[in-house]
Each structure stands twice: as structure tokens, then as C-alpha cells.
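@channel anyone free to eyeball this complex?
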Amino acid sequence: MGETLEQYYQSLGLSPKVYRFCKAVEKELSTRFLEFDEVAEYNQVKVIRAMQEHKVSDYHFADSTGYGYNDSGRDTLEAVYASVFHTEDALVRPHITCGTHALTIALSGNLRPGDELLSPVGKPYDTLEGIIGIRPQKGSLAEYGVTYRQVDLLPDGGFDYEGIKKAINKKTKLVTIQRSKGYQPRRTLSVARIGELIRFIKGIKPDVICMVDNCYGEFVETLEPADAGADLCVGSLIKNPGGGLAPIGGYIAGRKDLVENAAFRLTAPGLGKEVGASLGVNRAFFQGLFLAPQVVNGALKGAVFAAGIYEKLGFECVPDAAESRHDIIQAIVFHKPEAVIEFCKGIQAAAPVDSHVTPEPWAMPGYDCDVIMAAGAFISGASIELSADAPIKPPYSVYFQGGLTWNHAKFGIMMSLQKLVDAGIVSL
Ligand SMILES: *Cc1c(COP(=O)(O)O)cnc(C)c1O
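replying in thread with the prediction:
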């Protein structure tokens, strides 16, 4: 006789009490899970059709070296991305080092001195502050004479249409819209709401470029930003669209001229997309994209599972277990530093990699307080893999996301609860 599942879990430190509590929560979420399954099925078919349309073949998985001229795998992958995101063109490269880099080349490729950048949805992701020059930084857009305006969301999370109208002027060249809340307390924007915003902005200034920071949003819905009128959408391959297999990379999908401008910034003016050897990553990029709808599905199930569990225990979850989802990030507000630390220890303890290490709060560059991070990833820093982090300051919220499989996400979340129970912070 082999071990039962409960015995397996027990051998990994999970008590029957925690397991059964979580199992009951999982049962209550079955309708939500079905919703996610339907979105995943739709997106899976979307990806397969794009691959068939562009006749993806095994020779596209070959690598190229040197200048990378005529890398048909790279060019076909970019065509597939353009089909999936319903855009004219795409730039998908291992030379784009991260999401911040992808956003940087999309912005700096399409803005010129004297132009103005507008964020109508409040402060963008932390790393963009230096790029835009909100925070002084050598090489920022501000140093190149690009000005910046920001219109915050209204207290109820709505768009400040009056303020946006006032902020748009003859210099406004590009509008950046961040889909995910990132690590801000606001709600994530649905593609439909992004569409409303874009229609409003184009109604005032039709030729303004609308760019969406799509990080963490890909494949969460059946629509993507270009379906709602975005001219450019930008993201990281070590998040959703890399499907956990891409070892590096970013993408920019959108109008052909705007993608070309970004490519001229990534490589060199005039060279653009023609150069850039793929160095053997093509297969991982294709296969990762193929798996991405299913990986995102698992991450979403993990996110609502966590919300279901912690809500039941009286903690505020953003979003809650019943709300519609527009990204894969789950925030849980604990109001206690010990709780966020134990939560992160549980996530770490469930990892396939580095489960034996214990995360500790630490001073990190760019943060004004200690931060604790839990991750045991195959790809260093990949936040599509199960990961959690928390700044050690009020209100003591933990942000967590990812999970390459639903079963792993589930195990991680159950272990987080186990640690809280073991530390006497929560009793079931
Ligand atoms: C992760 C993220 C970024 C930056 O991506 P990195 O790969 O960490 O540089 C930008 N915007 C949002 C909303 C993100 O979630």
C-alpha cells in the first residue's frame, strides 16, 4: 500500500486539521474554478490557433548566433505574439532583460524631447519612477526633456475624467495605463475599464499613443488590451506569458510603427528587429507561451483559494474571493508583522527549490523598510512561480502570486496557514 495523500502532506509538515479546513474552502470555490477553466480553455485555443496560423515547425526552435539575421524562429514567435494579442506587430526578445526594460524601450523609443507622458491611473510601478524621472535618476526621460503628468484615481477607484481632460494638452504624446495594481492599494483594471479610459482619451486627442503595462494581466481574461483599443502593450516573460519556461525576456506588442520605434531603441536606429540572435531560447519561448494560459489558470485558483481561506479567518483580502479577477496578485492584510513572516515561511517551505532555507526580513535597495521575500524558483526571480513578499510596515500586508501548477499553489497556501497555526497566530 502506498501512502495516502493526507499522509504525504503530513510527512511534509501539514496537519490534518489545516488540510481539512482548506479542503472545505476549496469545495466552496468550485464555481469560481470553473470560470477560470473556461477562460483558460479560450486562451489555450487562441494560442494554438496563432501557432497554426504561422505554421510553427520544429526548425523554429533552432538557435541563431552573431547578428541573428534571418532568425525565422524569432520572427515567427513575434508573429505569433502579434496574433495572440491582436496587434500588427510584436517585439519578443531575450535581450529585453525584464518588464521594466520593456517599458523603458517602449517609452523612450516613442517619446521625443518636448513630448509629455501622462499616467491617468495614478503613480506607476515603483521601478518606473526612475525611468520617468519622478524620482531623479541619471538617464531618465526627464533628463531628455520629456515631461510627465499624473492624474490620480478618485477615492472610489474611478477615473478622474475631469482631471484627465485638463491634463491632456498639445504636448501629450503617450498615455501609460497600468493594468495591474502592482503593489498599490488600488483595484486592478479590467480590460473593459481600460477600454473606456482609452475611448475617453482618444475622444479628446485621437493621435495620442495609449500604452498598457500588461504585467501580471496576460491570459487572466479572454480580452487583452489591444482588444480595447490600446496601441501598445508591454510585459515580462518571467511573468504570465513566459509560462514558467522562458528563462528571461520581455515583449512589446502593438502598432507596427510604434513597435519599430521600440526596436530601434532596443538595438539601434535602422537595425531594429533585423538583428538579435535568439541564442537558443526560441523553444522555451514558444512552449512557455503554449503553457501560459494553463499556468495563469493555476495561479488564479491559488489566489482565490488564499482569499477564501484568509477571509474566513477574518483577514482583509484584496481582491476578495468573490470579486472578478484582472491580474494574478493577491494581497492579504494581516496587521501583524509576525503573521506576514510566518506566511512567507510557509510559501518557502512548500517550494520545489530551496525549501530548506528560511526567509528573513532584510533591508533592500529602493525600500524604506525591511522586506521579506519567499521564492523557490527554477527561474531566478520569476514571479509567475509561487512567490510572496511583504514590506515590514503597517498595515503588514503580504502580496503573493504565481504557482506553475494549481497543486503547488494550493500546497504553498496550506503551508502558510500551517505556519500561522504553529506560531499561535491563528487557531482553527
Ligand atoms: C513586475 C512589474 C513591472 C516590472 O517588471 P520587472 O520585470 O520586475 O522589471 C512593471 N509593472 C508592473 C505592473 C509589474 O507587475
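from a first look: Residues 155 and 186 are 9 Å apart (CA to CA).
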